[in-house]
Amino acid sequence: LLPAAVLVLLVLLYNCGFISVKNARSWFFVGSIYSASYKGCHGKVYRIVRPSESRVYLLCFSSQLNNGSVEAELLDKDKNVLVSLKGHENRELFLEQGKKYYLVLRFHSADGAHHFEIR
């Protein structure tokens, strides 16, 4: 009963946007989906984003990589790509309050660090 309760709690926290899910392997990964350092990272990290108000948001992404690549994508509830960011990019995007969006980071043998911000 306890393992089922913990699983339900984790699903609720993920669905509300409080925790990320990491489906990646790496030699070293310190940080979160918003800011991290890593070595030999390959895979994806997911997080649900629910805007507090309907407005145009500025999505800021910057990465400092020695090897590989990292890409940040914001997807709608149907998993359609709304915006894709690489390197040092800023994009404006209208997001609706209460809607569910998926933030996905895709790593391909990446060594370095990144910072992602939604303002």
Helix content: 10-25%
Specify the number of helices.
Answer: 1
Separation, N- and C-terminal Cα atoms:
41 Å
**Number of beta strands:** 7
> How large is the radius of gyration?
15 Å
Integer average pLDDT: 90
Order of helices and strands: HEEEEEEE
Largest sheet: 7 strands, antiparallel
Helix and strand content put the structural class at mainly beta
What amount of the residues lies in strands? over 45%
The outline comes out as flat
Q: What's the SSE blueprint?
A:
Blueprint: H1 2-15, E1 21-25, E2 28-31, E3 35-49, E4 55-75, E5 81-86, E6 88-95, E7 101-118
Antiparallel strand pairs: 1-3, 2-3, 3-7, 4-5, 4-6, 4-7
Report on this structure.
The chain is mainly beta and 119 residues long. 12% of the residues lie in helices and 65% in strands. It contains 1 helix and 7 strands. The chain has one helix at residues 2-15, and strands spanning 21-25, 28-31, 35-49, 55-75, 81-86, 88-95, 101-118. Strands 1, 2, 3, 4, 5, 6 and 7 form a 7-stranded antiparallel β-sheet that branches. The longest helix has 14 residues, at 2-15.
